[in-house]
# Entry
Amino acid sequence: MSDPSRRHFAALLAALGFLLPSAVPADSTVELIGDTKFELGFSVREDNKPGSPPVRWKEVGNPVWTLTHHHSKSSFDNREHFQFRQNGLTFNDGFTLLDVHPVSGDADVVLGLNADKEYGGIYRQKGDPWPHVYLTQRISDASGHLGADAPTLADMKAIDFSMSVKLLYDRANPKEGRIRSVHAAQFILFFTIQNLNRQSEGHGDYYWFGIALYDDREPVTFLHAMQDKGSPKKKGTDKLIYNVGVKPFTSKVVADGRWVNIRGDILPHILDGLREAWKRGYLPASQNLSDYRIGSLVMGWEIPGLNDAAVAFKDLRATATISSPAP
# Structure
C-alpha cells in the first residue's frame, strides 16, 4: 500500500471510530523522589534554624536532600565530624552515624542513632521529646524539585515504590523502668499528602502517609492510624498519621539482618489514607483529588528508647504512572 493510500486508510478508520495501535497515547512516568542515588550532597537545617552551607563531596548541581536533627545532642553543623571521599562521606560524632556510599557494603546510605548516649542511659519521662535524625526532601511545593510540574493524585494511575532495607544492628540497652511499648526504635519513611492548589481553601493542609520500615516492637510492621499529638515539651503537627507499615509489600522481617526488598503500588494506600482522613474530619476543605500532590518526604530514625541502632538502604524510588489524556 502506497503512503497516500495508507494515510487515507488510517483517516477512514479514525472516522469510523477505530484507532491504529500506533495512535494510542502511552502512559508516561514521573520520578517523584529526586537524587535517589545521593550524588548531589545535602542541605543542612537543624531544628528549624536558618540553613547552613551545604555538605557535598563534589560540585555538581544543587542538593535535593536535607539533613536534620530534632531534640538531639548531635548536629550536622559540626563539620569536623565529616570525612569526605571521592564519591561519598561519613559523619560520626558518637550520637549520629551517616555513611553515604560506604566503602564496605553495597548500600547507598547507612544511617544510625545512639539514643542511649543521647539520654545518658536514663529513660525519658512521659511527655519528654526523643531524638530524631532525618533525611528529607521537598517534592511538589514551590521549593520542591518537581514544583509546579508535579502530578496531582487525580493524574496518577499508580505509584511504584521500591527500596531495599537491612538492619545492621539494634542494641536495646534495656534497664530498669523500660516499658516495651514506649521505649522503642523506629526507622520510618513518610510522605506528606498535601493540598497544593493555591485556589483551594485548604491550600497547605496535609496528612502523613507512612511506611514504618523497622520497629523493634513488630517483626513486620502493619497499619496504624493516629493523630500526631504533641506535648508541652514536644510539639506535634496534629495531622493524621496513616502508617501502613511493610506488611502490604512483604512478609519478610527486616530485623533478621538481611536485605529486605519492599516494593508495591502505594497509590491505593495513599487514597485509603485520604478517605480515612476525611472520615475523621481532617482535610475538610477539599475532597478533590486534583488538589492533592506528594508534598515532601521524611525518612530516618525516631528512638524514644535507649537503642543504639543503624540501618542500610539502597535503590529508593517512587515512580508515578500518569494517565494519558483521552484522544
Q: What stands out?
A: The first helix runs from residue 3 to 15.
